[in-house]
Amino acid sequence: MTGTLLAPSDTTARTAHALPTAIVMFGASGDLARRELFPALINLFRQGRLPEQSLVIGVGRSPLDDETLRERIRGWLPSAESQWLGRIRYLRGGYDDPATYAGLATMLADHASQLPVPADRLYYLSTPAQAFEPVIGHLAAAGLNRAVAGGHTRIVIEKPFGQDETSAQRLDAVLHRAFDESQVYRIDHYLGKDAVQNILTLRFANAAFQPMWHRSWVDNVQITVSETVGVNDRGGFYETAGAARDMLQNHVLQLLALTMMEPPASLSSEAIRDEKVRLLEAVRLAGPAELDRLCVRGQYGPAPEGSTTPGYLQEPNVDPASRTETYAALRLEVDNPRWSGVPVYVRTGKCLPRRMAEVVLQLRRPQHLPFAFGHVLDDAPEALVLRIQPDPGLRLRFAAKRPGHQLSSQPAEMTFSYPAQTQAGVPQAYERLLHDALVGDPSLFVRSDEVRQSWRIVDPVVRSWAASSTPVPSYPAGSWGPVEADRLLTREGRRWHDDR
Fold this sequence. Notes:
The protein is an alpha/beta fold. Helix 2 packs across helix 13 and helix 9 packs across helix 14. Helix 6 links the parallel strand 4 and strand 5. The strands form two sheets. Strands 7, 8, 9, 10, 11, 12, 13, 14, 15 and 16 form a ten-stranded mixed beta sheet that branches. Strands 3-2-1-4-5-6 form a six-stranded parallel beta sheet, sandwiched between helices. It is built from 15 helices and 16 strands. The two termini are 23 Å apart. It folds into two domains: 132 residues, Rossmann fold; 278 residues, Dihydrodipicolinate Reductase, domain 2, CATH 3.30.360.10. The radius of gyration is 24 Å and the shape is globular.
């Protein structure tokens, strides 16, 4: 299937030009800066989307200076232009040291004095989560949270936003003492993926699909975000997070909200985020007595013989007696008129067979089949599959006549490949999100009440698992998770959409 069925559309804000901006990157010598942030900034520079006379100030504890940071970036990005590298400066200092922020104030004032127009400020917190509160508090104490006359001051915060609902509310209180909610950009990089945004276009720009998004058509909804890798050298972080906090609370629930929310009154950022919050408010988890039955966790063990993949307990910086889950699956329901009675199965895990993110709407069986097609439909139920990664696009699975003399059926598909529709490269998630933060478009960022609702859903699960003395089920690395996750569906006459 070809054409422009799902062609994306940019908002006016995304094509706008921002004022010159001082981008202050806390954690500039870290892994996220190397892998995502500096590559995103250089792409924006090459596209003419990084405002003229902007400055990047890297803040970190590593013993660097301007030139050594630039040399490090040249090692990460050999094609980086000297003109772009010349915009980068480095400030060494502790995140809880007032002298760091006095030095930052001086650098920002020097930059502003060289400009003929007011400058914006964008603070990006790519630090460990425990540094969020000290950085926010010291920015406010130094007066750096206030917007300069004629400009804007914004702050971008990476996940995790809290470890539970209580800590998220505490972090929100610290944040709101220093910044107005309109200045805050809580980043979830999944929302920057073109294929995730394309869900809105698919749903609301195509009359053919709108009736399908309803309990009359949909038997169940499945959301899978899977990774093939283990925790590798992130064992220390993962011991404090686990799959539920690391993936369910943000990426998975954001996909659920976008897929199942009601049509917004407009495409404004607040209208879209209002509907996401309403959807999350309607999500229902099992009561305490049913949590064990409807919430499944697992921990990957060693791969089958012949593979060198270690189990989670053998990974560096992991407690050999750890009960941290590397796999999580839940059965949820959405208590509203559109989705009442439709089960929603979500799962995420590490060391699974494929790296993918997809949303599956499995359609209801026809009430009456005049021919013996049932066995085909049982083997491959009709489904609309929204693939986020890899090969983002759309697949519609249905039954078609098998070629030949007999009237029998076989599974068939219509597919749409999203990348095939453009010759220009699709912007990377951080590239789009950084630009949106620069121009002040919060549409793809998470609002405070979204965070609260996400933790409301995940918190009871995490608490239940922490209090349980039941052994954490193990699954071999490279499998689709513990058998208990299959039973989550099979006892209701369903199965996971695995494409095995």
